[in-house]
Amino acid sequence: MDGSTHRIKVESDKSGEKSGFYVAHLDGHPAGYFKNNRTGIEIRWKAKGYSLTDEQKSELIAQAAIKQQNRKTEQHAQQIKVADAIQQLLTIAPAADSEHPYLKEKHARPGDLRIVPQNVHDLPTDSIIKIGQNWQEVRLLREENPDNIVLTAGDLLLAVQDINGQIWSVQTIQPSGAKLFAAGSKKENNFHVAGNAGQGLDAAINKLPAIVIAEGYATADTLSQGLNYPVIAAFDSGNLPKVAQDLHHKYPHKPIVIAGDDDHHLESTLGKNPGKEKALEAASLVDGVAVFPVFAPSERDSKKLNDFNDLANKSALGIEAVKRQVGSVVEKISQQAKQDSLLKLQVPIEPERQEIKQKRALVR
What we know:
Layout: E1 6-8, E2 20-25, E3 31-36, E4 42-46, H1 54-92, H2 101-106, E5 114-115, E6 129-132, H3 135-144, E7 149-152, E8 156-161, E9 167-173, E10 179-181, E11 192-194, H4 201-206, E12 211-214, H5 217-227, E13 231-233, H6 240-250, E14 256-259, H7 267-270, H8 274-285, E15 289-291, H9 300-303, H10 308-313, H11 318-346, H12 349-363
Parallel strand pairs: 6-7, 12-13, 12-14, 14-15
Antiparallel strand pairs: 1-2, 2-3, 3-4, 5-8, 8-9, 9-10, 11-13
Helix pairs in contact: 5-11, 6-8
């Protein structure tokens, strides 16, 4: 309980994965926060059952504020350090190809993805990045270098950027599909653009009829293939609202469609559907629309299908269903946006018309 972020394993994590994290404080009023990035579930805790004088409270609040500011400063400095190391890595990492096992399984394109190189020989000697050849070597390197970023050779590398194009992190994807983010990096509010073909963000967004946002890369790329334009990958359901709001703030005139996952299979065990709930939340925050995959009647429960990549590759309905289900929503919301824009242009003219009518009435 030191006020720092600690990654932890959660249910369904594979070897090497830590899809949860917590932050807990002892100063002031002991409290903690936990999040499962796999399900989107968040838990907050606060200690109770004791009392302090007003003077003690004020002193602890002041101390806590100083410590919190120091933590933020240290965290930001670490994030910048990690971002610099990652950008160096991306300059030497070889381009991915369609033969990577994860891409083949998901029928996803390599796009601008890269591969973790075999070694760090081409990186600066003081780089904080270490590369292992297998999970045993990676585990040993992490134990020996707790302040370094340790990656596995051959994993996919997805650049993680903000709305200004600044790269802050990378997501790695193993052949098995296990996903991790660079330790100490900034993921929240950031994303990857699938199907962008090397364009800048502004150039890509300005050509779109609507901004479509999905969770993972494979789903975003499937949507990009079906719609024939770039799609945003927010990485997980918890990040959908944050990414949607940032994009809406920068591109307020572009309608937003959230192509969410329908985690119906979690309802029986967790009593929640984080993919659907977060997609609906994100859409409501930006006056957008959420859309979810609709499978053939016999498929949804028997195969546990839940996203648009499943719809394209594991459903009898195929990629045409992706085009139809999401394309129709994009067309509808983009047409509505055009109508709303025209109405706004007409509003200033209306008072002038009223004034003309009044003058005519006086003449009569």
